[in-house]
Amino acid sequence: MIVQDMVDLLQADVVAGAANVDNVIRGGYVSDLLSNVMSQAQSGNVWITMHGHQNIVAVASLLGLSAVIIAGRIQPDKEVMIKADAESIPLIITTLSAFEVVGLLYSKGIKGV
Amino acid sequence: MKRPFVADLHVHSVLSPCAEVDMTPRNIVRHAVQHGIDIVAITDHNACDNVPAALLAAKGTNVIILPGMEVETKEEVHMIVLFETMRQLEEWEQFVNGHLSGRLNDEKHFGAQFVVDAQDELIRIKPEMLLTALNSSITEIGRVVNELGGLCIASHVDRPANSLLTLLGFIPPDVELAAVEVSRLMSPKQALQRFPAIGTLPIVTSSDAHRIDDFLSGPKMIFYLEQPTLPEIQQALQGRNSRKMLNQ
Questions:
Q1: Residue A67: inside a domain, yes or no?
Q2: ipTM tops 0.90
Q3: How far is CA B238 from CA B202, B206, B243, B245, in A?
Q4: Are strands B244-247 and B221-225 parallel, antiparallel or unpaired?
Q5: Contacting residues of A for B164, CB less than 8 Å apart
């Protein structure tokens, strides 16, 4: 699955990094503790979080994540989108809860690390 | 002439729902006098209604009260904010009140939030829920506090809960911090080894006391200052102007 397929599945919005929606998704990770994400998530993962803080882009870039989904109607700060564009990280927002996002992705074969 | 001042930059009063009832401003000041704690910052969660009572209780003693607060940012990071004057803190309080969640405290689950006077008399019970995030980012909070002349210290960065380093992984480059605080669970040296992200920021230790026993036994700072003022403490944190600090 590529990021665009996932966006279609979730009927979500790409708010930054749209040039990289053909990134391939290899597994997923959910956490709102960035220290934990840095130690656990794997390159190619999609990461689901409730954080809208700009540090999420740095973490995603550091780990080589395929995309970041900000769940639960959280609106990211403006700097986050600017950073995500600069770092070529697809940033996706959705009204779905993190639970719903994970359920949908899992049902389509995206598994945990 | 510079001399050492023992300082505790993180103390909760009975206004914090999680604090014990022995943490009245008068009792905190009385114990500070008895145990040679020269500087005490009163830092309740998202509120500062008991700072005036602490300032009044400290009148005529050698104890200096620093007006402060422990705020919870939108990202759920806890930060100590300190000011030199009550007037500055009141301006900060207006910002905080404009960013509260709008929810009410549930005493049964979180504890009561007592506003008291300098004689331990109950003035009122604060109804707003204080133990929750403000609707303002860590960056915005840091900016506004610094604009008002205050300083920010990231609370207990070594702990799993409400810690800047746990929640955000590393210190965001646009957050103006005067220092980070490590909890009583760890020495500054251990903290720096475990959390290299602290980098070159000064590390302070404080009691984060919610009861008198913890206030007395918890870690403190020793600042070498001419006068016990916030600007001099800031210089001591940075080792400037021959002001110094030691973790006690």
A1: yes
A2: no
A3: 7, 17, 8, 9
A4: antiparallel
A5: none
Whether residue A53 and residue B166 make contact (CB cut-off 8 A), yes or no, is no
What is the torsional sign of CA B72, A67, A100, A95? positive
pLDDT tier at A63, thresholds 50, 70, 90: very high
The length of chain B in residues reads 248
Range(s) of the domain holding residue A73 = 3-107
**pLDDT > 80? residue B11:** yes
Q: Give pLDDT, residue B160.
A: 87
Integer Cα distance of A113 and A105 in angstroms: 13
Residue A77 binned pLDDT confidence (cut-offs 50, 70, 90): confident
CATH number at residue A18: 3.40.1390.20
Q: Do the domain assignments include residue A113?
A: no
pLDDT at site A87: 96
Question: B70 near B45, Cβ under 8 Å?
Answer: yes
Q: What is the mean pLDDT of residues B109-137?
A: 96
CA pair distance A104, B143, nearest whole angstrom: 40
Q: How many domains are contained in chain A?
A: 1
Scan for tokens 């920010």, then name that residue. Answer: B152
DSSP per-residue codes, B64-96: EEEEEEEEE-TT--EEEEE-SSHHHHHHHHHHH
Shortest Cα distance, chain B CAs vs residue A76, angstroms: 11
Q: What is the pLDDT of residue B154?
A: 98
- Which residue type sits at B83? F
pTM value is: 0.92
| Pairing relationship of beta strands B64-72 and B39-42 according to DSSP bridges | parallel
Which amino acid would we find at residue A44?
A: G
The percent of residues above 70 in pLDDT, for chain A, comes to: 100
At residue A28, the pLDDT reads: 98
B169·A53 Cβ contact <8 A: no
CATH architecture, domain defined by B3-247: Alpha-Beta Barrel (3.20)
User: Which residues from A are below 8 Å from B when comparing CB atoms?
Assistant: 32-38, 51, 53-55, 58-59, 77, 79
Within-domain flag for A112: no
What is the 3-state composition of chain A as percent helix, strand, coil, each rounded to the nearest 5? 40, 20, 40
Q: Is B22 helix (H, G, I), strand (E, B) or coil?
A: coil
